[in-house]
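User: Hi! I have a protein structure encoded as tokens and I'd like to know what sequence might fold into it. I'm fairly new to this, so please keep things simple.
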């Protein structure tokens, strides 16, 4: 029992002392990080990343969603079950092509962004 009480007291003392020293060091690290973040070169890259994120990254999810909607509409259209299946398959094939094009566009934009970043 005495060993457990000593352990708890030791842990509590270590926590209090560590928290005081830790907070000061944390503030120093935080200030340095904020200085780096505010550098013009860093902000330029942040702006480029935001622009990239707005354009390329949304191309693929939009193509996927549009494809799913088209297939669903085709599958629920009028006609016999076989006609609806055929319409859904055609819509799925066209949508697959759209998704492939969107994926290729996104991949090309990523490559261009990396090339621009590296300066090559």
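Assistant: Happy to help. Inverse folding works backwards from shape to sequence: for each of the 120 positions I chose a residue that suits the local structure. Here it is:
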């Amino acid at each position: 029992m005495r060993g457990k009480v000593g352990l708890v007291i030791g842990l509590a003392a270590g926590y209090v002392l560590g928290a005081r020293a830790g907070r000061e060091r944390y503030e120093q690290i935080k200030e340095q990080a904020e200085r780096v973040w505010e550098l013009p070169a860093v902000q330029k890259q942040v702006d480029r990343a935001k622009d990239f994120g707005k354009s390329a990254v949304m191309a693929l999810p939009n193509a996927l969603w549009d494809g799913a909607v088209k297939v669903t509409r085709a599958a629920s259209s009028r006609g016999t079950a076989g006609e609806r299946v055929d319409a859904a398959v055609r819509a799925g094939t066209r949508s697959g092509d759209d998704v492939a094009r969107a994926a290729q566009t996104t991949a090309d934009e990523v490559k261009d962004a990396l090339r621009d970043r590296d300066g090559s």
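A useful reference point when you look it over: The mean pLDDT is 76. Feel free to ask if any position seems puzzling.
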